[in-house]
Amino acid sequence: MTYTIALPIADRRAARDFYTAALGLEPFGPPGGDGIPEPLQFALAGGVSLMLIPTGGFGWVVGEGRPAEPGRSECLLSIVTADVDAAVERAHAAGALIVAEPAQQSWGYAATFEDPDRHLWMILRPDEPRF
After folding, report:
1. Which residue from 83, 65, 82 is spatially nearest to 74, judged by alpha carbons?
2. What is the pLDDT of residue 130?
3. Average pLDDT in the 51-66 region?
4. Which of 14, 6, 8 is nearest to 95 (CA)?
5. What is the CA radius of gyration of the chain?
6. Mean pLDDT value of segment 44-60
7. 110 has pLDDT over 70
8. Whole-structure pTM over 0.90, yes or no?
9. Stretch 111-117: mean pLDDT, rounded?
């Protein structure tokens, strides 16, 4: 099986540029009329991809009813890494809004940021390494 996480976005080029710069992801797929893969997708890990869909198209895909008000996070996406500080600095340099600075939590070292479309991402290093 394969899995796709789909998120609504406002601007394809801005989203592509952010995810490439902030997370080091490379888009894949045939280019659309704007030269950006259509649909805009990034491979995350074995059988998991991230698909970014313009808000108008997102409504078309899921129907007009939204599970959350616009501007509110519908999920928290997490990235496990050995170097949380470097990952957060990279995301911030790419335009991320830091929601929670890197800090030790009871379960690990973590930080949270918002992407340009206000989706929340957590960067973490669990107390028990998983990598």
Report:
1. 65
2. 57
3. 76
4. 14
5. 15
6. 86
7. yes
8. no
9. 95
For residues 82 and 125, what is the distance between their CA atoms, to the nearest angstrom?
6
Residues 6+ apart with CB under 8 A from 117: 7, 8, 9, 10, 15
- Report phi then psi at 70, rounded to 5: -55, 140
List pLDDT tens digits, range 3-24.
Answer: 999 998 999 999 999 999 999 9
Is the Cβ–Cβ distance between 40 and 16 less than 8 Å? Answer: yes
Are the C-beta atoms of 87 and 75 separated by less than 8 Å?
Answer: no
Q: Which residue has the tokens 């789909």?
A: 6
Residue 129 has pLDDT above 90, yes or no: no
- 10 Å Cβ neighbour count for 52? 27
Q: What pairs with residue 53 in β-bridges?
A: 8
Nearest residue to 128 via CA among 109, 102, 100? 109
Instruction: List the structure tokens of 111.
Output: 């930080």
* C-alpha dihedral (84, 97, 26, 35), degrees to nearest 10: -170
Quote the tokens at residue 112: 């949270």
